[in-house]
Design goal:
Length: 268
């Protein structure tokens, strides 16, 4: 190879290196954030500190699980993140919105427009059909459902032949899938799930978790879930461990075995 060609190759490599360094890395958007959050119930000698200086960020398009022993503050953290409960001190953000600065009316509007909920209890309206329950949040907000999105969602949920049935005519697993579809139907920025498989047997629970995992993978949905179940946690991208109201560990790429081992140390 000639000196000219060698110099040319070196120059091209140098330019390419500069280009690669100059290209900014994509900034990961934060879906939810807690900044030095404390939550205290009661006062004086009977005060209970449920959360104590919690700092945590949850990325958009990720599936996070919150775990810890009974009384560790995991459900309290979820409720504060979702704007269902007010913090004693600190700040909660949903995207760029300071949730803690909003009054009750605006928090209600925020939950209606940007948040989906999946609870252990299904909270379905008995007098409405499955489809009416699914579209209820949008009906209340006077928003027309995205037909293509809703159709794809119903296909994934696997209840297209049960949409005209009322909750009393559905199995527990079917009711929970209706509740999950309701949470996702309006394409919320984030879904909060509190023990979503708590009332389901192992088969139906597995179906529910697989559905939530698919929502993250295929729809880019953001999910934050409280669970006590290592199997449920293994479906997530990240597990946040709480103890006595404080975050004590973070686990990326959790497996059932790794979660079990970590929970044993917390409960010992």
């Amino acid at each position: 190879m000639s000196e000219v060609s060698q110099e040319g190759s070196q120059e091209e490599a140098s330019v390419q290196s500069v280009k690669e360094e100059a290209v900014p890395r994509p900034v990961q958007r934060i879906a939810s954030r807690a900044v030095d959050v404390a939550k205290v119930y009661g006062a004086g000698s009977t005060a209970v500190r449920a959360l104590d200086g919690v700092d945590m960020e949850f990325e958009t398009g990720k599936y996070a699980a919150i775990m810890g022993p009974s009384g560790s503050g995991k459900s309290t953290l979820l409720q504060c993140l979702a704007g269902l409960d007010q913090v004693t001190s600190g700040v909660i953000y949903l995207g760029d919105v300071d949730v803690t600065s909003l009054n009750e009316k605006h928090r209600t509007m925020l939950r209606r427009d940007k948040i989906g909920f999946i609870f252990q209890s299904f909270n379905l309206i008995p007098s409405l059909t499955a489809k009416e329950n699914i579209t209820l949040p949008m009906d209340l907000a006077r928003r027309k459902p995205d037909a293509e999105w809703l159709d794809g969602l119903l296909d994934i949920v696997g209840l297209k032949d049960r949409l005209r049935h009322h909750p009393s005519e559905l199995s527990g697993g079917e009711q929970q899938r209706v509740a999950a579809a309701r949470a996702l139907a309006s394409r919320p920025e984030i879904v909060f799930a509190d023990e979503p498989t708590g009332n389901l047997d192992s088969k139906r629970g597995g179906e529910m978790l697989a559905f939530m995992r698919r929502a993250v993978k295929e729809f880019g949905q953001t999910i934050i879930m409280v669970t006590h179940d290592p199997i449920a946690a293994s479906y997530s991208d990240q597990v946040v461990f709480l103890e006595d109201g404080k975050i004590v560990d973070l686990m990326e790429g959790p497996t059932v075995e790794k979660v079990l081992d970590r929970m044993k140390t917390l409960e010992s």
